[in-house]
Amino acid sequence: MTDWKDNLIKIAPYVAGEQPDKSDFIKLNANENPYPPSPMVTEAIKSFDGESLKRYPNADALPLMKAIAEDLGVDHKNVFVGNGSDDVLAQSFRAFFNSDKPVIFPDITYSFYPVWCEMYRIPYKTIPVDESFNINAADYGIKNGGVVIANPNAPTSIGRGLDFMREILDRNQGSVVISDEAYVDFGGCTALPLLKEYENLLVVRTFSKSRSMAGSRIGFAVGGETLISALRAAKDSYNSYPLDSVAIAAGCASIADREYFTRTLSKVMATRDRLTAALRDMGFVVPDSSTNFVFAHHDRFRAEDIYKYLVTKDIYVRYFRKPERINDHLRITVGTDEQTDMLINSLREYIR
Predict the structure, then answer these.
(1) Which uninterrupted H or E stretch holds 45?
(2) How is the beta sheet containing 26-28 ordered, strand by strand?
(3) DSSP letter for each residue of 4-21
(4) E strand or H helix at 293, and its extent?
(5) Burial class (CB in 10 A: 0-12, 13-18, 19+), 331
C-alpha cells in the first residue's frame, strides 16, 4: 500500500543566515540595510487608511509599477511587481524555463536558484566560477534552457560590467537571460540599457537591500512586454494579488524620496570601503565589493573559528557550512559605523 508520506515534496530548502532568538546583538549575516527606510515610508504607513484593507489591493500594484517605471525611465508595461525579488524570480522560473534543456548559472551564486529548479522540476547545470570567483561569459555558450546571472554576484560580492552582460546575451539569443540585480545600487552595473537591444533579457531587483525595506517584501522585474506578459500569466495562475496595499503605499513613498535613497547608499558604500581596507590590513583576502557586504578569507585562520569567536562577542556574520569552495570564507554585511568599529576591534583582538 502506498504511504501518503511518499507523495510529500523532497527537496533541500534554502537556508538563511542564523537568526538568534534575542535582540541585543549585531546582525551582519542577512545583508540587510543598517539604516531605516525613508521617513516618507514611515509617514505613508502611519497615515494609511486601515479601513481600505477590507478591499483587495490593485492586482498589478499599478501605482507602484508606475512609480518604478518613472524612476527608471521605462514604460510601466515593462514592469512587473511581486513579493520581494525571490517571488519575482520564482515566478520567472515558472514562466520561462519550460524546456528539457538545463538552465545554467554559476556554481557559486545565490543558493535559491537550484531550490526553485528542484521545486519546479527544471533541469539545471552549474558553471564553475574561476579561482578568483569571477563568472566568465565565455563559459555560457553551451546549449541551455535559460541563463541566470546574479550581478553583482552573491556571496562573492563581485560585480561585472555591461560588456560582460552583453557577451552573455550574445551567446544566448535563443534563451531567456535573467540579470539578478539585488545589490546593483551599491556600485554595480545594471543591464537596464541592454533591454532596448535584447527582448530575451529580464532585469530583477528588490527593495530589501538598498531601500531598507526587507520587511515589506517588494521586488520587481523590468523587461520586454512578451516576458512581462508571461510573468503576469504565471502570477495570475498562482496568486492574483501578490502585493498588499500597505506595501504598495510604502514602496511609492520610498521611490519618491530620491535624496534619502542616494544619501543612505553613499553611507553604506563608504563604510564598506573602510571595512574592506581594515580587513585587508589584518591579512584578510577581500575582493572589491559592489554590494552591501564583503566576502573575506584569511590564510592563517579558519573561517569557522573566526565565526565562533565573533558569536561570543554577539556579532553574527555568515559562515557557509558547506564542503565546497567557499567553506573557509565569511560573508559580512556592512553595518553602521558603530557596528563596523565593534566588528573590526573584535577581529583585531582575535588575530592578536
Answers:
(1) helix 39-46
(2) 26-28, 315-319, 330-333, 293-298, 284-285
(3) GGGGS-------PPP--S
(4) strand 293-298
(5) buried
What are the grid coordinates assigned to 32, written together?
540587510
The tens digit of pLDDT for each residue in 315-326 reads 999 998 876 789
Homologous superfamily of the 4-37+259-351 domain (CATH): Aspartate Aminotransferase, domain 1 (3.90.1150.10)
Domain ranges of the chain: 4-37+259-351, 39-257
Query: Which CATH number is associated with domain 39-257?
Result: 3.40.640.10
Distance of CA 76 to the CA centre of its chain: 22
pLDDT tens figures, 268-298: 999 999 999 999 999 999 999 999 999 999 9
For the full predicted model, state whether its pTM sits above 0.90: yes
Tell me the DSSP string of 105-149. EESSS-THHHHHHHHHT--EEEE---TT-PPPGGGG-S--SEEEE
Dist CA 247 CA 55 (whole Å): 14
